[in-house]
Design a protein that fits this description.
With 931 residues, the protein is of the alpha+beta class. The chain is built from 31 helices and 29 strands. The termini are far apart. 38% of the residues are buried.
Length: 931
């Protein structure tokens, strides 16, 4: 079992207060902090870039005290600026922080000392959550006047609550345990505080002075009714979560109203949970202490046997990660640090389901994008500029807070660049120098900076329980150029693993371990199961029990598109992997009789294709659409918690789900625009026509010149080359394409189908789904083969394998291969800095070139490409010539896209086709057309 940090024990100890805490002790609300954002002029630009750049945000804090005014230095974090201002003020006042940190009392003595202060006449005048309760309790009637529940005292004062945790660590997970601690401490107090008639309340013996109460406005007459909407969470899983109204008097005590709602005689038995959601939230769960606990006043601290007879509220306990018994009220109401008045806001059942959804990794991401029924946690992070919604690190930290785990521990380490990477960096320096000498795209950086090879980063992430037990550890082997990128990617691995667990809570421990191993994750199965023990009981409810109808079908685990209807004219602009697609959409719940209720809509929703950022059925539909088209389709219902988290009218949605009619979700999507991947954006910034068009044009001209009648396009993608061929008169009669992406092949088929006719001269067209590195006899014997910008998407050994397979087995008479020239990237990326959505420090890295696309596994220099092609041609009796498009072969750094044209040498003794008739066909025909 992994642990970290010392175990806290109930002994006297030295506590070091921060400067800000000492200022608060001395001056309270008289200390006024004001934080302002400032800009660091030294970091307000990018060297060599004639576009003003905003530097990192810094913060400066001014602190006003009755006798002193100070202004801090500038810091990256607001709290650092505040602490600096407080420290400066202490020096001006001549206060030594070390001398202001006396030894603490023993926990029991400190507890009684704290309670004496809390019930003093001085304390009630402070802006403290507990003082608000004491003021309201002073207006209660009869014997309850000035009486507050022991739970309020234990929960609303942080210092007292921490002392209770020192005496009994289990108080954090079971708030009832704090009641007996507080009552025992009250019994030790002098005559200013006594135990009230109720066994779980504390009453101040003497009234507060009239002048004090008058200054606080407590003695004013008259009252108004305050209506607050809340949520009732029944203890029984057979009962549904329901809205409830709390009608309170403005001059009354709101806990009395909650007690009546829960069927308790007065507020003495009411127990408050910790706050739920954000740290500033006043949302809590309220429930009644079990009757068995109230009757058994001799219960020992830490031995809550009397609670075992009570009914544990599983849903409520899961929400606050504390033991909750019986029915519970979830309400956003209470007294705050900011005001003496009662704070309150309405909560709906939708609020309940949104909180429930936020406890899931994918749900947290869905809420950050306000797209509960559309968005999905992406499976990969390609670039920060393409990510939308909360980043993985933020989501992981939020997940840990939601489940009362310790904050994740991120440890980044630097990894020296490998020798091959260093060699590549030297190549970059040489290229940059040559570009300077030719007067092209210099970036104004010092030459010596280019020689700094830098380091790569890896990140280890550890997640601990509140008891400091190690739960999860992830240490991926991948390295990244930036420390933040390594943190986000490691976080995303853990989130993806947790997401799979929550999608299948019945997953066996063996399957979970197997999945963890693939993602470089280790976890302690015993501790993990203990921390998430309530998850299956809560999330399994949502399909049927939550809507209170046994006839409601369970949500579909695998959603499929039904009744797809695509409308609008085909613009020819399609989304592709890596592109940013923007669409408008709406989702409605529809019954068999076509009763419809809108659940969710968005006028503009943008995401990166191919990363899993939306649910898979929606992305599958979008791949069949072009910009300007719209589509309607229906799908089976997802988990009901998602539907109810999106629904505004809870009653109507419950009625529709509970009816005897079958329901489905109806989607309407309209593809508004597509932004090309980074590679295309960079090329378009420098070339007209775009580089992709120039490559296709180059291939078309060679095809026309060769008088070929048959052609196969290896890695045809969406069919851009095959499509362009149909716009020119050629001698081609048969064309074929092969690719591993079914989505791309689907688009290619759609394009070819709309253009093929007798006028094109093509007699046969066929598309294969398969790998271009595996032999298939049907790909043999073509006059010409093309492979444009494909090999860089493979690993280098696979690219070499393709070359051998193509020239030794498929053996076209001519093979055209193009791939990016890595040496040209310094121009592409340097010329397009103003058009890239990258971080400031990324924009400064013009000398340290990146690959043109996040999906590229390698990019070759001219020398590397020439060596590969020459050796390949020599082995397989081909001649090879080199050319390219974009730039010039005679000016450094050569063509932007380098091209090799292989021509087969015809030998008399050679078997021209050389096919293995017994080899299996490894490709699958996905579309075929014949005249």
């Amino acid at each position: 079992m992994g642990t970290r940090g010392p175990v806290v024990t109930a002994t006297a100890r030295k506590t070091t207060l921060t400067p800000k805490a000492i200022i608060h002790q001395r001056f309270g609300t008289k200390a006024c902090y004001k934080v302002e954002e400032v800009q660091d002029s030294n970091k307000n630009g990018c060297p060599g870039l004639a576009i003003p750049q905003k530097g990192p945000s810094l913060y400066r804090c001014s602190l006003q005290l009755p006798e002193v005014f100070v202004v801090s230095d500038a810091f990256k974090r607001k709290k650092d600026a505040e602490q600096c201002a407080a420290e400066m003020a202490l020096k001006r006042l001549g206060i030594d922080p070390a001398a202001d940190n006396p030894m603490e009392l023993e926990p029991w003595d400190a507890l009684t000392h704290r309670m004496t202060y809390l019930f003093s006449d001085e304390f009630i005048q402070s802006l403290h959550p507990l003082s608000g309760h004491l003021q309201a309790a002073s207006q209660r009637n009869g014997d309850l006047c000035r009486s507050v529940p022991a739970s309020v005292v234990a929960v609303c004062d942080a210092k007292l609550n921490n002392l209770c945790k020192i005496l009994e660590p289990k108080v954090g997970s079971n708030p009832i345990l704090a009641l007996s601690i507080v009552m025992k401490a009250a019994a030790r107090l002098p005559g200013s505080v006594v135990i009230a008639k109720g066994p779980l309340s504390i009453q101040k013996q003497h009234p507060y002075p009239p002048e004090t109460m008058e200054s606080l406005g407590v003695l004013k007459s008259g009252s108004d009714i305050i209506r607050v909407e809340a949520v009732c969470i029944p203890s029984s899983l057979d009962k549904i979560v329901q809205p409830v109204s709390l009608n309170m008097l403005s001059d009354g005590y709101y806990l009395d109203t909650i007690a009546q709602t829960l069927g308790v005689t007065n507020a003495d038995r009411i127990v408050l949970s910790r706050t739920i959601g954000k740290a500033s939230s006043e949302t809590r769960l309220y429930f009644a202490a079990p009757e068995s606990y109230v009757l058994d006043l001799s219960v020992n601290v830490g031995n809550p046997e009397s609670q075992s007879k009570a009914s544990l509220n599983i849903r409520a306990s899961y929400f606050c990660n504390q033991a909750v018994y019986g029915d519970a009220i979830m309400a956003s109401i209470g007294y705050t640090w900011r005001s003496k008045d009662l704070f309150h806001e309405d909560l709906s059942v939708q609020s309940y389901y949104r909180i429930l959804t936020s406890k899931l990794p994918s749900g947290n991401y869905k809420l950050s994008r306000e797209a509960i029924l559309l968005a999905e946690l992406p499976t990969m992070l390609t670039t920060k500029s393409n990510w939308r919604g909360s980043f993985p690190r933020e989501i992981l930290c939020s997940f840990c807070r939601q489940h009362q785990l310790s904050e994740p521990v991120f440890t980044t380490i630097t990894v020296p660049l490998k020798e091959s990477c260093i060699s590549r960096s030297r190549s970059e320096v040489n290229v940059a120098e040559k570009v300077k000498q030719n007067g092209k795209h210099t970036n104004g950086t010092d030459d010596r900076q280019s020689v700094d090879f830098g380091s790569m980063y890896q990140c280890e992430v550890k997640i601990f329980s509140k008891c400091e037990d190690l739960l999860i550890k992830c240490w991926p082997t991948e390295t990244y150029k930036k420390a933040n990128d390594s943190i986000h990617n490691a976080s995303l691995k853990i989130l993806s693993w947790l997401n799979q667990y929550f999608k299948d809570l019945g997953m066996t421990m063996e399957s979970l371990k197997c999945l963890a191993g693939v993602l470089d994750i280790w976890f302690d199965s015993e501790n993990f199961s203990k921390e998430f023990s309530l998850c299956p009981s809560v999330h399994y409810l949502q399909n049927r029990a939550e809507v209170g109808c046994e006839n409601v079908p369970h949500a579909s685990t695998g959603q499929e598109v039904c009744s797809l209807n695509i409308g609008g004219s085909d613009s020819g602009v399609y989304p592709s992997t890596g592109s940013l697609s923007c669409m408008s959409y709406s989702v409605s719940l529809v019954t068999e009789e076509h009763v419809k209720e809108l659940l969710e809509s968005n006028d503009e929703f943008e995401f990166e294709m191919g990363t899993g950022a939306v649910i898979s059925p929606v992305e599958a539909v979008l791949t069949q659409m072009s910009v300007g088209q719209f589509a309607t389709f229906s799908m089976d219902l997802p988990s009901y918690e998602l539907i109810l988290a999106a629904a505004n009218d809870f009653g109507r949605i419950i009625s529709m789900l509970s009816s005897s009619q079958a329901c489905c979700l109806e989607y309407f999507v309209n593809l508004l625009r597509v932004t090309e991947p980074p590679e295309e954006r960079m090329e378009q910034a420098l070339f007209s026509p775009p580089l992709s068009k120039q490559r296709v044009e180059y291939a078309v001209q060679h095809i026309k010149k060769s008088c070929a009648t048959t052609l196969v396009d290896f890695g045809c993608g969406s069919g851009s080359l095959l499509d362009s061929l149909l716009d020119y008169p050629t001698s081609l009669r048969k064309i074929a394409g092969v690719d591993i992406s079914q989505k791309s092949l689907g688009r290619a088929a759609k394009i070819l189908h709309s253009k093929l006719s007798s006028e094109t001269g093509i007699k046969s067209a066929i598309l294969y789904d398969g790998s271009i590195t595996q032999f298939d006899s049907r790909l043999c014997g073509f006059d010409i083969g093309t492979c444009l910008e494909v090999i860089e998407h493979m690993e280098e050994d696979q690219a070499c394998l393709f070359g051998d397979v193509a020239l030794s087995y498929f053996r076209p008479k001519i093979l055209i291969v193009s791939t990016p020239n890595y040496e040209y990237n310094v121009i592409l990326q340097g010329s397009n800095l103003a058009n890239q959505d990258e971080d400031v420090d990324e924009k400064m890295e013009t000398q340290s070139c990146k690959f043109r696309n996040h999906d590229h596994k390698f990019e070759w220099t001219r020398e590397e490409f020439n060596n590969w092609a020459c050796e390949l041609a020599k082995r397989h009796n081909y001649n090879v010539e080199f050319s390219g498009v974009g730039g010039s072969g005679d000016v450094e750094p050569g063509f932007a896209s380098q091209i090799a044209v292989f021509t087969r040498e015809i030998l008399v003794e050679e078997n021209d086709l050389s096919k293995d008739e017994n080899s299996p066909d490894n490709c699958r025909v996905v579309w075929e057309w014949t005249m």
